[in-house]
Write a structure and sequence with these properties.
Elements (H helix, E strand, L loop, with lengths): L1 H19 L4 E7 L6 E6 L5 E3 L7 E6 L5 E6 L6 E6 L7 E5 L5 E6 L5 E6 L6 E6 L6 E2 L4 E2 L7 E6 L5 E6 L6 E2 L7 E2 L3 E6 L6 E2 L6 E7 L5 E7 L5 E6 L6 E2 L8 E7 L2 E8 L2 E8 L5 E3 L6 E7 L4 E7 L23 E5 L2 E8 L13 E6 L5 H4 L2 H26 L4 H28 L4 H24 L4 H23 L8 E7 L5 E7 L12 E6 L5 E7 L9 E7 L5 E3 L8 E5 L5 E6 L6 E6 L2 E4 L7 E6 L5 E6 L5 E2 L3 E2 L2 E6 L10 E2 L7 E6 L5 E6 L8 H4 L11 E6 L5 E3 L7 E7 L6
Parallel strand pairs: 1-30, 7-11
Antiparallel strand pairs: 1-52, 2-3, 2-28, 4-5, 5-6, 6-7, 8-9, 9-10, 10-12, 13-14, 14-17, 15-16, 17-18, 19-20, 20-21, 21-22, 23-24, 24-25, 25-26, 27-28, 29-30, 31-32, 32-33, 34-35, 35-36, 36-37, 38-39, 39-40, 40-41, 42-43, 43-46, 44-45, 46-47, 48-49, 49-50, 50-51
Helix pairs in contact: 3-4, 3-6, 4-5, 4-6, 5-6
Keywords: Membrane, Transmembrane, Transmembrane helix
InterPro entries: 6-blade_b-propeller_TolB-like (IPR011042), LRP1-like_beta_prop (IPR032485), WD40 (IPR011659)
Family: Belongs to the TolB family.
């Protein structure tokens, strides 16, 4: 009986702990990572192609050892990119060659004598070039490697000279960061080709151009260097001598070319990206003729030729759009291999990479994500039959002009009357088109605002009709009255049907990221005064309790006066609540655990400021001319973090870089002056609190880029706008880099643990 009491006591004591146990906390972040790459090898003589790897994770950048026995390549099967090795002589298992817990290793090459392996790594922060003895039967550690470049810029794509004494590579070290030509907040870089001795000494800059010069390789005799250069998506292959002289384009103009590799004295292979497809092409160095290497529908890229006639490359069939990732990147919602865990102080946190431009937010209470999607891919998809009525109006208008000119001709009016009639008619139509285009399409103004401007046009037309009616005895003014009557009728018609001209339906879906089961849960209905073109949903997140979805709708790349608001969706009742009320650019809202405080960004002062809303009280926290954005409030409501360009670096006079700033709630209820949390040369943005409010995670460009920019991202954004995911502990200022890779990682969200995951 005594033993039974002891067991019961143990059950009573341990039960609260058992039921309170949760799994690791979870961080979800957006990733521009592709999907579906494996390692391939081809015999250049026979054309036979073999697939060497078949793994769910991305695998790329293969290279064969000079003796033809080994192939090394990069794999993301462990999370961050690592270098693996596989024997080509026998059917051996793929195994890890170079290891490190956090940093990435990539772009490996082996010296011609087989003694050394050189690769890139973020082991010391930026992408540098490292050297280790090549020991294929050992597992090497990057901590034992020699850093050959040690520069705050990024160094990429090393390649050996035929005698093994020199290494050539590309680097962005001597070019300033530039703005993107379309999205000025996105930073872009420029690279040049450099050479150095195998020990890192005798560094020489070989190129100095306005575009990226990259992926250099030697000719077989070591007398020439080949590389790609040129504007993005229209680069060409160039040759130069080993000191950088005689730079000459050798590939045809109009064929996008990069990643050159010499096959033999007369043939060079390269990658071409055209029409959203990667293809491997051959360049005849004697005739400059180009043809395809393989007849394949797969995306193949990154070819490297070996002196024994073998060519390695990577790629495969492009993925298709999936129901559980509509509107995201084609393929799976989560990156293959997600999640992987990282130590954050004494706790483990699981990291999930989500293949969307913004991370689909995780529900804090279960294994589901929410994402939005619209089938509209262009203006023509959004036009309704009411919009096509405008075409009928224009046709009738042209008919009216023809009748008017005919009547004037029959009345034998002078040429001046014809000119006056046509000028007035075209001017009135141009005025109507301008008002409709500028306020409806360009400014995306609220519907009632557009109606006011159209009403002014209608009033002007009504007055003009009255004036011409008084001159009704003259044919000219009679025709002017008719054209103005038609314009008035058209304007009134547009005022009435304005919200119905364009329809962009927005649907929300819930997906279980463990089973990929997807459910359509809600369709967003815009408020009556909303411009129908304001169909973009952005910055979706859950409130800390997981009961409501917080999201922004509007024109968020527009100015302060553009329309935008923060909404919430209760997932139980599916009721939508508008949280901000203005005709200005409100967005990027965040809410406390008790739903008592809402922080958001607004342009209602004429500048983008941070506002705090408590009940009906709204407080402007940053009333100045600086651009503030992406505010968040701690679940406890005592801290606010936002990003701002107030102390940022000016880039080309077009944009200032953003840093993170922190404000505390004082005991007297006021908020402290913003304290700068980050200070680096790039962009810092998209902060988010940990569930306990003690950490901040965010996207940062601090680590630079980890590969040549033209090779990484084929979409309109350049790679790594903000780069990687970092975490800062607020009290200690301890900073931890959470991701190391070459892809664009951004918009992180931190959710609590929910049991065994």
């Amino acid at each position: 009986m005594k033993r039974l009491y002891i067991y019961l006591l143990l059950i009573v004591v341990t039960t609260p702990f058992a039921f309170s146990q949760t799994g690791n906390e979870r961080i979800f972040y957006s990733s521009y990572r592709p999907q579906g790459w494996d390692i391939w090898i081809a015999d250049s003589q026979t054309g036979k192609i073999d697939q060497l790897t078949d793994h769910d994770a991305l695998e790329y950048n293969p290279a064969i050892s000079p003796d033809g026995k080994w192939i090394v390549f990069t794999s993301e099967r462990l999370g961050n990119p690592k270098i693996f090795i596989k024997s080509l002589d026998e059917k051996s298992e793929t195994r890890l060659l170079i290891n490190h817990d956090s940093s990435m290793q990539d772009q490996a090459v082996i010296s011609p004598d087989g003694n050394w392996i050189v690769f890139t790594s973020t082991h010391e922060g930026q992408s540098d070039i490292y050297r280790l003895p090549f020991q294929p039967f050992e597992t090497l550690n990057v901590a034992d490697a020699i850093n050959l470049t040690r520069h705050k810029g990024g160094d990429f794509r090393p390649s050996f000279s035929p005698d093994g004494s020199q290494i050539i590579f590309s680097s962005d070290r001597n070019h300033p960061i530039k703005t993107h030509p379309v999205f000025v907040f996105a930073m872009r870089r420029t690279g040049d080709v450099y050479s150095m001795n195998i020990d890192g000494e005798n560094l020489k800059r070989l190129t100095n151009n306005d575009h990226w010069d990259g992926s250099p390789c030697y000719s077989n005799d070591g007398k020439k260097i080949f590389f790609y250069s040129g504007p993005r998506n229209s680069s060409r292959i160039y040759s130069m001598d080993t000191e950088g002289g005689n730079q000459t384009a050798i590939s045809p103009e109009g064929i996008n070319a990069n990643s050159p590799s010499i096959l033999n004295d007369s043939t060079l292979v390269f990658t071409s990206f055209q029409n959203s497809e990667f293809r491997l092409l051959r360049l005849n160095l004697k005739t400059n003729q180009v043809d395809s290497m393989f007849n394949s529908t797969s995306n193949f890229l990154g070819a490297k030729a070996n002196k024994n006639g073998f060519i390695t490359f990577y790629g495969g069939q492009a993925p298709s759009e999936m129901a559980y990732n509509l509107g995201g990147f084609e393929g799976d919602l989560l990156v293959k291999g997600s999640p992987y865990s990282i130590d954050l102080n004494a706790n483990k946190v699981d990291l999930y990479a989500v293949r969307r431009a913004f991370a689909a937010p995780p529900n804090p209470t279960d294994h589901t994500l929410i994402f939005d999607n619209t089938e509209v891919r262009g203006l023509s998809d959004a036009m309704t039959y009411w919009a096509y009525c405008l075409i009928v109006i224009i046709i009738i208008y042209i008919l009216f002009l023809g009748i008017g000119n005919r009547n004037l001709n029959n009345a034998k009016e002078k040429p001046g009357a014809f000119l006056f009639f046509n000028t007035i008619a075209v001017a009135i139509l141009a005025l109507l088109v301008f008002v409709l285009y500028y306020f409806f399409l360009d400014q995306l103004a609220p519907i009632n605002t557009i109606r006011v401007y159209l009403g002014v046009v209608a009033l002007f037309l009504a007055i003009s009709i009255g004036f011409t009616h008084k001159k009704r005895t003259r044919t000219l003014f009679g025709q002017l009255r008719n054209i103005m009557l038609f314009n008035l009728a058209s304007t009134l018609f547009i005022i009435i049907v304005l919200p119905r001209l364009i329809q962009i339906p927005i649907h929300f879906y819930e997906v279980n990221y463990k089973t990929n089961e997807v459910t359509s849960i809600y369709s967003f209905i815009k408020p009556s005064n909303y411009n129908p073109l304001n169909g973009m949903v952005i910055d979706t997140k859950f409130n800390p309790a997981g009961t409501d979805l917080i999201y922004s709708v509007g024109n968020f790349r527009g100015g302060p006066s553009n329309q935008g608001d923060v909404f919430s969706l209760n997932l139980s009742s599916l009721e939508t609540t508008r949280l901000t009320f203005s005709d200005f650019n409100d967005g990027f809202g965040d809410i406390t655990s008790d739903n008592s405080k809402i922080v958001f960004r607004s342009g209602r002062s004429g500048f983008f400021d941070i506002y705090l809303q408590e009940g009906k009280t709204i407080q402007n926290l940053t009333m100045d001319e600086h651009r503030d954005n992406f505010p968040i409030i701690s679940p406890q409501g005592d801290k606010i973090v936002f990003c701002s360009d107030r102390l940022g670096a000016d880039i080309e006079g077009k944009v200032k870089t953003m840093d993170l700033f922190l404000s505390f709630l004082n005991k007297d209820g006021t908020w402290s002056k913003p304290k700068r949390m980050t200070d680096d040369v790039g962009q810092d943005a998209h902060p988010h609190f940990s569930p306990d409010g003690e950490w901040i995670i965010y996207s940062s460009e601090e680590g630079g880029i980890n590969d040549e920019e033209p090779l990484v991202q084929s979409v309109i954004f350049g790679p790594q706008i903000y780069g990687e995911i970092f975490a800062i502990h607020i009290d200690s200022d301890k900073k931890i880099r959470l991701t190391h890779n070459k892809w664009e990682d951004g918009a992180p969200l931190w959710a609590k643990g929910i049991g065994k995951d």
